[in-house]
Amino acid sequence: MSKILFFGKGGSGKSTIISLLAHSLTRKKYKTLVIDSDESNVTLYRMLGLNPPSKTLADFMGGRRQVSNVLFRGKGELNWKIPDSLSFNDIPGECIAWKSDLGLLVIGKVGDYGSGCACPFNALAREFIKKLKLKDREIVLIDTDAGIEHFGRAVEEACDMLLLIIDPTYESIVLAEKAEKLAHQINKRLYLILNKVDIETEKILREKLKDKNILGSISYEAEITRKNLAGEPLENIKLNAVEKLVDKLTTIINES
Ligand SMILES: Nc1ncnc2c1ncn2[C@@H]1O[C@H](COP(=O)(O)OP(=O)(O)O)[C@@H](O)[C@H]1O
Ligand SMILES: [Mg+2]
Question: How many other C-beta atoms can be found within 10 angstroms of the C-beta atom of residue 178?
Fold first, then answer.
């Protein structure tokens, strides 16, 4: 099974698409764990319709400073040692929120002003994701902060596949070029999802992005905007485009 890292410019729709895919995957009986590795946004749990886990992984392990000391300086100890072969069942209950087959784990959040950079969270995410061993019909979707800043912090090396969310902006087209080179360097498969498109913008994007692996596209849906504005879950939004995406994704995963 597969660990899929989602990335793309801020506001392109990473969290939204992860939520739509996660709901569809669980309807298709895939046990789906969403890992929130975006250290600033705090609303993913709402889109998923889950309660937030009682602790972030970083807090559970002793806090940002402690994680930093252990992972970067080899000083001290963490409150929990991540087993070398970690299954869903081994994840401490305090760090994970499950609702039937849909789970959420949050790596860490940057809280108050001056609380420091997110590097320890990225290092922790890499360790955790690397050690996670998936069984049949288990899948992990990883939400990240904007752009490709986490490339080079090596979170992506712990994943099996990269998914770039493209909204109809010039910035996204530029990002796609960069991402292709980076994915090639680290030898990972890269797929694109077009988001918030209409007939015209989809046509333009497909022309600009030719030869790239476009998995599918999701149009601009006022219902999505409304639900997100209200802080409501995206669970009941069922789109053909999303079902098609999930079918393609699971076919790719099952073939590899
Ligand atoms: N297909 C879509 N149709 C309409 N609005 C969308 C769509 N995808 C995302 N949005 C809106 O765009 C905004 C940013 O989405 P979000 O998922 O938070 O982006 P990211 O996680 O990439 O920063 C949200 O307000 C969301 O409601
Ligand atoms: Mg987001």
Answer: 13
Q: Is 227 in the pocket of ligand 1 (CB under 6 A)?
A: no
Return the residue whose CA atom lies nearest to atom 14 of ligand 1.
11
Q: Is the pLDDT of residue 1 over 90?
A: no
Has this prediction a pTM greater than 0.85? yes
Q: CA-CA distance, 198 to 188, in Å (whole number)?
A: 30
Model pLDDT for residues 172-184, shown as the tens digit of each residue: 999 999 999 989 9
Model confidence over 195-231: pLDDT tens digits?
Answer: 999 999 999 999 999 878 999 999 999 999 999 999 9
Distances (CA, A) of 216 to 25, 28, 124: 16, 19, 31
Per-residue confidence (pLDDT) for residue 256, from 0 to 100: 81
Select the CATH number that applies to the domain covering 2-255 from these four: 2.60.40.10, 3.40.50.300, 3.40.30.10, 3.10.350.10. Answer: 3.40.50.300
Closest ligand relative to 228 C-alpha: 1
Residue whose Cα lies nearest atom 23 of ligand 1: it is 11
